[in-house]
Amino acid sequence: MDALNLIYIIIFALAGVIIGYLVRQSIAQKRANSIESKIKNQLEQARVKVREMVLSAKDKATGIIETAQNEERERKKELLNFERQLNRREEILNQKISESEFQRKELEVSIEKLKSAKLRIEDMKIKADKEMERISGLSKEEAKEEVFKSITEENRLETTKLLQRLEKEKRDEIEKQANEIMMTAIQRFSRSNYSETTTSAVSIPSEDIKGKIIGKEGRNIRALERATGVDFIIDESPDTITVSCFDPARREVAKLALEKLIRDGRIQPARIEEKVEEARQEVNEVIRKAGEEAVYEVGILDLPKEIVYLLGRLKFRTSYGQNVLQHSIEASHLSGIIAAELGASIETAKKAALLHDIGKAIDHEVEGTHVELGRKILQKYKLPDGVIKAMQPHHDDYPFETPESFIVAAAEATSAGRVGARRDTFEKYIKRLEELEKIAMDFESVNKAYAIRAGREIRVFVTPDKIDDLGAINLAKEIANRIQRELNYPGEIKVNVIRELRAVEYAK
Length: 508
Description:
Elements: H1 2-136, H2 140-188, E1 199-203, H3 207-214, H4 219-228, E2 231-233, E3 240-244, H5 248-264, H6 269-298, H7 305-313, E4 318-319, E5 322-323, H8 324-342, H9 346-354, H10 370-380, H11 385-391, H12 403-416, H13 424-441, E6 446-452, E7 457-462, H14 469-486, E8 494-498
């Protein structure tokens, strides 16, 4: 029984295996059939797309071929037209060449005829000249000379009158244009004129201050005059002290120092020297600002600061009573206007006119004319040659080499020639006082020299360790003798030699 059951179990197991295998085979067959159908569908779709692409490509290729064929036909037409044009031009050119050849041959024939005619004319001329020489008894050259003399004599007077008339008309025209330019410049720029004076007034609050300024036995006023080199005029005028000096810079220093002492109230020789030195520093600052204001006013901003400072020193210089800095500014403006009218260099003309009197800033300290000193200053600071050439001939010391040199000279003369601008007698007075101081300063032991009291006195300060009291007496005689030899002056001049020895020591 058990064996039978085992047989049944084995049979059933084999049957299950066979049935499972068959089922799996059936499933696999179905799956294979499904995949194959999918592949067939995809292949069919691919074939359809390929056929569509091929048809589309054929259509495109056909379109491209047709376009290319059309373009080729157009190019062929253009080439045919171009070829026809070339042929037409070639025919025209050949026709012109034929015509030119014909004209050339005609020209050659004409030239030959002209040559023959020229030879015949020359033969006839030679024969005529010989006949004329035979008849007149003169050679050809002699006859020409006689004819020329006759014509010259007949027309000399007429030609001279014509030249004179043309010269006068041209001169009148030039003068008219020059006057118009100068009038335009003067009308476009005008400045009030004022003449420098030699005195300044300082107000004082009370008579007590006036007494302090004088000091015991005049000690303070002498110290002030010695330190500043000016005259302090203290008269019966109430509340006023007059500062008198021909040098505007020294007068300004003295005025400022006196005002400082009055405000301070402590007036003594040591304090006086301190305030005078402060005043000198302030005047130097005024000089610097005056130079800067001048260059800004005329619009020239590229000058070295040393030249700007020297320009500012002209604020305290005069020429025949005319302030030199104001004169230079005015000449610069006039030069710029004239240069613009004439088409010259405006910058060069303005700069040269502004600096034309720069030598006057140091001509009282260094030997030489202000023109020569000005040239050396401009050369030292490497200003352009055009500026130097334009400024140097304004007093005819150098030749006029550029248009700007004529412009600067004209502007300088116009500024100086204004009514009331200058006073000759004032300049002569200033010149005499400068020469008086220069004579005294030429002596080796002299430290400072001041011409005071309108030139009636020269006050000379000597270095005490270089000369003794006896030497000071001899020095006064030598200076007086030299003044008598070299200067012309009314009345007499007092030579006052001062030798002052100071002993200074410090307690530490």
